[in-house]
Amino acid sequence: MALSKNDVEKIAHLARLQINDADASEVGQRISNILEMIDQMQNVDTSEVSPMAHPFDAVQRLRPDLVTEKNQRDYYQKIAPATQDGLYLVPRVIE
User: Which of 6, 47, 60, 92 is the most buried (most CB within 10 A)?
Assistant: First the structure.
């Protein structure tokens, strides 16, 4: 499927790309090659292939949800610029 210069300009506009006239024919040829490859892939007989939910039969290993560090809130709040009632005070950013 060959694309015209007008088709390439429309695609470039939709993709918000700026393609100069010198490169338009090369871009059109590349897009045409991609569309031809897609046509070839569409013609492959997949009736004997069972669908897969995931290409790998892998199971994600999860670690146990355990606390591994002690609570250091008091230490961190001692070195913070400003705290109140266990909370960090920060400058107001929205008026």
Answer: 6
